[in-house]
Amino acid sequence: MLKTKVILFLLFISVSLCATNKLDSLFIEIDDAIKRSEFYTQQREDRIYDIKSERLKTPKMSDKRYEKNMELYQEYKSFICDSAITYLNHNITLGKILHNPNFEYESSILLASLLGSTAMYLEAADLLSTIPVSNLSKELLIDYYVASNNIYSELALYTSDKSGVERYRKISEAYKDSLYSVISFDSESYLIIKFNDILYNGSVKEARKISESLLSKEKFGEGRYALMAYYQALTYKQEGDRENEKYYLALSALSDIYTATKDHASLWMLAQILFEEGDDIERAYNYISYSWSATAFYNSQLRNRQISGILSIIDKAYQATIKQQNKKLQLYLAAISLLSFLLFFALIYIYKQMKRLSVARLNLQRVNGQLKVLNKDLSESNQIKDEYIGRFINLSSSYIDKFDLFRKMVNKNLSIGKIDELIKITRSTKTLDDNLKDLYDNFDNAFLQIFPDFVDKFNALLKEEHHIIPKNEEILTTELRIFALIRIGIEDSSQIADFLRYSVNTIYNYRAKVKNYAAGSRDEFEHDVKKIR
């Protein structure tokens, strides 16, 4: 039973990580698509230009002109609201001139729907009231009831007249009942209305079956895919499943950007979620900024109202983040300057110490033959010090140069406002890792310069099956480095841990494990290591 629970838990972690990686990839795609958004906008403008060129070739008062106006409306309805309204008005006028009521009624219904989607509810309702319902074909009647239901349900949701909420809701329900009497129950319009009804009545799983079915019929990167992915996101929002909500909002937003759809909701909703989670304020700011510019391009009152509040909040948070990051950078610069200053004095101190050591060596050379054994040990000690001090000077000089280059780079980037670049650099641990590798390589090379046969002599103290052989890219392994430190007199585990950046407990375990492999006495092993020449 416990084993089964562990397997299920690991499976859950694996699925969660996979979902997170997919979402991160989508965010990166959205970031890239926003950078290329002008290209997608130009593609749509090129299509519009081609249609307009073809339109000019049609007679002004003809069915062909009506068709081209309708094509332009389809291109403009999610791109530039005013232009979409203009071409629908052209077609309403054209329908009257051509004495074609179907042209007039179709364009009026589409115009009412467009006005309703941009929060011009009363204008939309007034326009619908001018249409003689009894003269409509079945197809136009369905469109009329769909438009009426949507407009009055939106009015009930957004009206500032609280006393009118119930009245608008009843009107919406009446139009819905009329729609159900004429619509096919497998049509998309019916499924969308049913989806909204059952979703907000709490039947989320049933609503998701509808949204999944609608989404499966659409192709990513085409206009209606974004809408159906948005519906799918709403089902997860209702359940409080943030990860899947973000995933489908991201798919919807990406499709909107690819199609240069300026009337969108998914991206600014995604920005709001990222802001609320607080882990990615910069991305939230970029998304809401793009949404705001797209909405301004489209010119919709409803979207402007929806976005303006969250835009203001995210902008303030983003500016506060930038200010805090600037303070951190100033602190880093001050710290680097201080370290450079201290390092300079450390070099002076080391130089003085070297002079003293030089004098000490001359004095030791005058010691008589009775101190030969001691002289040998001291000579070895001096050799160790010479090797490591020389390498330390080289490293110190190298670090000063690196700190100075880093200071200049930071100063330059601050001067030209490349804050994001500096943030990336200071977040990276690559420089630290590279410097640590240089430090350990220098230590290993210096040690083997003094004790070239150390590895072979050390393995001679171990059982044959436990010999420690460095890999091709290694100089010394961690175990060999620990006992190299012990050989040069650094025996305290805490000091070794500090140098190798391990915990004291880890160093203790390494020492104990290797001593267990000793060919001779375990208790004498470290003493034998210290006798290696």
Query: How would a crystallographer describe the biggest sheet?
Result: none
Radius of gyration: 38 Å
Calculate the mean pLDDT score and round it: 82
SSE string? HHHHHHHHHHHHHHHHHHHHHHH
Our estimate of the beta-strand percent is under 5%
Number of helices: 23
Secondary structure blueprint with pairings:
Blueprint: H1 2-35, H2 37-56, H3 63-76, H4 81-97, H5 101-117, H6 121-129, H7 138-158, H8 165-180, H9 188-200, H10 204-216, H11 223-239, H12 242-258, H13 266-277, H14 281-298, H15 301-365, H16 372-415, H17 419-427, H18 430-450, H19 454-460, H20 478-487, H21 493-500, H22 504-516, H23 525-529
Give your account of this protein's structure:
With 533 residues, the chain is mainly α. 79% of the residues lie in helices and 0% in strands. The chain is built from 23 helices and no strands. It has helices at residues 2-35, 37-56, 63-76, 81-97, 101-117, 121-129, 138-158, 165-180, 188-200, 204-216, 223-239, 242-258, 266-277, 281-298, 301-365, 372-415, 419-427, 430-450, 454-460, 478-487, 493-500, 504-516, 525-529.
Labels describing this entry:
533 residues, mainly alpha
Task: Provide a quick synopsis of the model.
It contains 23 helices and no strands. The chain has helices spanning 2-35, 37-56, 63-76, 81-97, 101-117, 121-129, 138-158, 165-180, 188-200, 204-216, 223-239, 242-258, 266-277, 281-298, 301-365, 372-415, 419-427, 430-450, 454-460, 478-487, 493-500, 504-516, 525-529.
